[in-house]
Structures are given as C-alpha cells and as structure tokens.
Specification:
The mean pLDDT is 97. This protein has a single domain (6-163), classed as Rossmann fold (3-Layer(aba) Sandwich). It has a five-stranded parallel beta sheet, with helices on both faces. Helix 1 packs parallel to helix 5, helix 2 packs across helix 3 and helix 5 packs across helix 6 (138-156). With 164 residues, the chain is an alpha/beta fold. It is 46% helix and 15% strand. Bound molecules: 5-O-phosphono-beta-D-ribofuranose (RP5). The site of 5-O-phosphono-beta-D-ribofuranose (RP5) has 11 residues, from strand 3.
Length: 164
C-alpha cells in the first residue's frame, strides 16, 4: 500500500469542525493522508510515538491543530524532522488568540509554520502541504496551478449588490 504523505492531527475531536477544512483540501488534491486525535496533554506518550515514527512512515508534512494551551504542534516539531504546520483552533474563552500565541511563539531552532486561526488556517495549511509535495510531483503542481486559476476566475466573477 502507498505510504501516507500527510498526517493531520488534532488535540481533540472538538477540533474537527476546524480541521475538516484541511482534510477537504487534501481529499480534493488526492493527497494520501491520515487524520487522528493525538492530544499533547491527555496522551503525551502517544504524541511522542507519533512524532518519533512520522519520518520512517514516510510522512512529508504534519498538520497539527490545537486550541487553548496548544502545545501539540510545538511538541511534535520538537520530536520529528518532518515539517509541522500548526493550526490555531478557536478556543471557547479567548477565541483562539491563546492558541495562536501558543503555536507561533516557538523558540529559535524548533520551527512550526503557523497559520491563521480557524478554518482559513486549516485550509491554508493543507494548501501549503500540497505546495511542499508538489516540489517533487509535477502532476500535483499542475493541480495546484489549476486550483489557483479557478479561484482567480471565481474572484473575477464576484458581483456586488450595487452593480446588479
Ligand atoms: C486542546 O484543548 C484541543 O486541541 C482543543 O482545542 C481544546 C479543548 O479540548 P476539549 O476539551 O474540547 O476536548 O487540547
């Protein structure tokens, strides 16, 4: 069976509403992915095992979403050389600003590519993973170019009530 290319992990199933937007993009591009809950705080040993085996399993990027004290992306990045793309999930009380700060403020030497809070961040993390993979996959790169072209056409076709 072909290796999984991208791992999508999240701290809780309550993150799914946000992280499903990453999965939708990966599915749309035909990227082989896996999605699972890996909680930094509630299952730290599993998190370490996931990170430690990611490279040998062939993962080329890990999209990690978490909210609140969002340690998952940073701790996974600390345990694997595979690029980690962090998605701040909107938290109940601080609307995800806490998640963003937790993920983006990594110490020098252990980077996490940090995306916007919420659905846009999840989708963009997946698009970024597609861009990474497409460096070595011309067919995937063409799909990305086509995606951008469709997006441009959709923006050009936008109308405003005042012009109708
Ligand atoms: C984090 O705590 C998760 O990523 C989630 O965003 C947040 C709340 O988790 P639940 O209490 O909803 O399971 O670890």
């Amino acid at each position: 069976m072909a290796e999984v290319q991208v791992g999508v992990i999240m701290g809780s199933n309550s993150d799914w509403d946000t992280m499903q937007h990453a999965v939708e993009i990966l599915q749309g591009f035909g990227v082989r992915f896996e999605a699972r809950v890996v909680s930094a705080h509630r299952m730290p040993d599993d998190m370490f095992a996931y990170a430690e085996t990611a490279a040998e399993r062939g993962l080329q990027a890990i999209i990690a979403g978490a909210g609140g004290a969002a340690h998952l992306p940073g701790m996974v990045a600390a345990k694997t050389p595979v690029p980690v793309l962090g998605v701040p999930v909107a938290s109940r009380h601080l609307q995800g600003v806490d998640s963003l700060h937790s993920i983006v403020q990594m110490p020098k030497g252990v980077p996490v590519a940090t995306f916007a809070i919420g659905a846009a961040g999840a989708a963009n993390a997946a698009l970024f993973a597609v861009a990474l993979l497409s460096n070595n996959d011309p067919a995937l790169r063409q799909k990305l170019i086509d995606f951008r072209a469709r997006q441009t056409e959709a923006a050009r076709s936008m109308t405003l009530p005042v012009n109708e």
